[in-house]
Amino acid sequence: MLAALKSVRGYAPINKYYEGVAEKNKEELDTWFYTQTASLNRKVSAEAVSLESTKSEVTDIRHTLQSLEIELQALLSTVESLKGNLGESQGRYGSMLAGYQRQVSALEEQLSGLRAGLNSKKEQYNTLLDIKTRLELEIAEYRRLMDTERIQ
């Protein structure tokens, strides 16, 4: 038994050496673990900030999209209203234009009738003027003849 204890005692420096190596490895592993954990925690914090920023941007974009959709609907409604007004105006002015065209046609007919009447009156006037001229000539001839008879 003593020999077994002596042999175990010979292993004591080796055990101490390996215990030291194991302790050193544990400390290095703990340091590496804490370093990696701290690095990952920093990355997680940075990503959380980035995520919050992105969420905020998405929310802002959604609000902008909603505002633009509301504005689009308002503009579409305005366009439809203006189309209706345009149709009404075209109908109203179309009927007004048709009325004006009827008036112009009636006035053109009146003008044509007046021109025809004027031409007829002009012909009558020229005929009467011609008759008057002939009568004046004839009267002048009779006066000359009567004057020549009186002189004889």
The major sheet is characterized as:
none
What is the helical fraction, as a range of percent? over 70%
SS-derived structural category:
mainly alpha
Low-confidence stretches: 1-6
Report the radius of gyration as a whole number of Å: 63 Å
Any idea what the shape is?
A: rod-shaped
Termini separation: 212 Å
Total helices: the number is 2
Q: Output mean pLDDT.
A: 91
Order of helices and strands: HH
Strand content: under 5%
Q: How many strand segments? A: 0
Characterise the protein shown here:
- The structure is a single chain.
- This protein is mainly α.
- It is 98% helix and 0% strand.
- The longest helix is centred in the middle third of the chain and has 140 residues, at 12-151.
- It is rod-shaped, with a radius of gyration of 63 Å.
- Residues 1-6 have low confidence and may be disordered.
